[in-house]
Amino acid sequence: MNLFTFDDMKKIKRETLGNLVPLELFRSVRLIGMYQGLPMKGKNTTITVGREIGKSMPVQSIEDVLTLFEELKIGIPKIIEKTDNKMHIAIEDCFCEGLPVNEGNMVCDLEGAILEGALSKIYDGKISIREVKCNVNGDENCEYIINFS
Ligand SMILES: [Zn+2]
């Protein structure tokens, strides 16, 4: 039994400040704390953290996963290409949009791992996700390629 579930996260009772925190706080945790602050740009941590979050999500279909990703305001996922064993997704309005470009850096790995964890609940086989583009790298979008095998 988990101490916290995704549903628990929605139980919010903050009278004055409400249910939102500013994007700069999320970015600070992600980029200053994790990407910059952890060894290897937080690689192992982000994979574990992202997958755990994804697996906690109440989703039943790929559509559920994409809708939730947008509801959480991580970004707006658009499917570019989908076959039986591959899905190519672009993220519009990603949380990283607007940050200074730093070529050679792709920073949205945790968000990809959330997708992977959530998709693993509705697909029995093996899933692997690869971040292939990122605004911070100077690309026009953040993009992931997901392989189902
Ligand atoms: Zn991004």
Automatic annotation (TrEMBL):
Record domain 4-vinyl reductase 4VR: where: 86-148
Cross-referenced InterPro entries: NO_sig/Golgi_transp_ligand-bd, V4R
Pfam families noted in UniProt: V4R
Cited SUPFAM superfamilies: Ligand-binding domain in the NO signalling and Golgi transport
Gene3D superfamilies (alphabetical): Trafficking protein particle complex subunit 3 (3.30.1380.20)
PANTHER family tied to this protein: ARSR FAMILY TRANSCRIPTIONAL REGULATOR, DNA-DIRECTED RNA POLYMERASE SUBUNIT I
Protein name as it appears in the record: V4R domain-containing protein
Organism of this sequence: Cytobacillus mangrovibacter
